[in-house]
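[stage:ingest] chain + small molecule (adenosine-5'-diphosphate)
[stage:ingest] validated
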Amino acid sequence: MSMNKASLECRHISLSYGSTPVLRDINLKIEPGEFFALLGPSGSGKSTLLRLIAGFNQHQSGELLIDGQDISGVPPHARHIGMVFQNYALWPHMTVWDNVAFGLVERRESRDAIRRKVGAALELVGLADYAKRRPGQLSGGQQQRVALARTIVIEPKLLLLDEPLSNLDKNLRVQMRDELKNLQRTLGLTTIFVTHDQEEAMTTADRMAVLDQGVLQQVGTAAGLYDYPDNRFVAGFVGTANLLEGELKMAPDGALQFHARGLGPLTLARPDAAPTLGAATLALRPHQVSIADPQQAGDAARLWLDGQVESAEFLGEFSRYRVRVGELALLSDQPHYAGVPLFSAGAPVRLGIDPRQLRVLTS
Ligand code: ADP
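[stage:predict] done
[stage:export] C-alpha cells:
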C-alpha cells in the first residue's frame, strides 16, 4: 500500500464554543511521516483540535494547512483524512471484510481494486483470517485493528486516532501500543493521536504537544519535555516532579542561587543563558534525589539536605520516600535491590541533589 506523507500545520488557530474559548492561538507543525501525540488532561481541548483537523469542528480564526495548502473551508470527506474513533464505530451487521471495503465501495472503486486493497489492509493488521467474522465476534483489540484497516485502506494523507488505546484493558494496551507503532512505521503515514496518558504518549510518539486549558504548552520529544520542561504544568504533567516555589537570586560571588521557601539557598549549576532573577519554581525528578543515612559522608558535588522520612512506599522496582525537609516535603525514588534495607517512617536521612539536574521554571 502506498502512503502519502503529508505535513500538517496549525497557524494561530482559535476556537470558542459560544463565549468559551476552547483552543487559543494554536501554532503547531507536524512533519511528514511523524507519529505525533496531542497530550493533555481531560477538557484541555485535545479532541476539539483533532476534530478540527478532521473537519468536524470549525475554527473561528487561523489557518489549517496540509502540505502548505489551507484546508479550513474544505468539508471533512474532501480532506483525505482518515479518523479512527474511540469506540471504533464499526458496522455491527457487516463482516470484517465489508467493514473494511465500505469506503472503497462508496468511492466506486473497481471490484478488483477493492479485493486487492482490502486483502492487503487486513493482511497488514494481521486479520486476514477474520474476514468473514462480524465485529461482535472479535476482541476489543481485533475490533480496533478492523477500524484501523478500514481507515488506512482509503490511503488517507493523514491518520487521526482519538484515544486509540483507552478502550482496551491494561495488558492489551501495551501490546496494541507496540502494534500501532509498528504499523505506523511500516506505513510511514503522518499520524496524530490524542491521549491523556503521558506514558502512552512517551512510549509511542516521535514528538508530542502538551495542551492545557486550550493553550499549547510545549512541543517536543518525550525526553526533551521530560528533561527540559518550559513551565510548571509540563514539568508536573510529563513524569513526576518535585516543584519548589521560591526565588532565583545572584549571590555576591556571582553564584546563582535558588532560595526555596522554607529552605536555605541552593547553589545551582551555571546556566547557559542569562537567567531571569526573581520568583521562580525549581523542578527536580524524584529519582534524581538520592537518600542516605545522615552519618554517611556525602559526595561533595551534590547538594545535601537534612530531613526526616514521612512515609515510604515499596513499589518493587523502587521505593518512593516522602521526606520532610524544613517546611517542605520532597519525593525521593530509590531503585530497590534485595538485601538493601529500606528507610522507615520517622528515620532521619540526608537527601542528595545533583545541581545539574535542577530546572528553574519562571512560568
Ligand atoms: P479533551 O479532549 O482534552 O478532553 P475536549 O476537546 O473534549 O477536551 O473539550 C475541551 C473543552 O471544550 C471542554 O471544556 C469541553 O467541555 C468543551 N466542549 C467540548 N465540546 C463542546 C461543545 N460541543 N459545546 C460546548 N463546549 C464543548
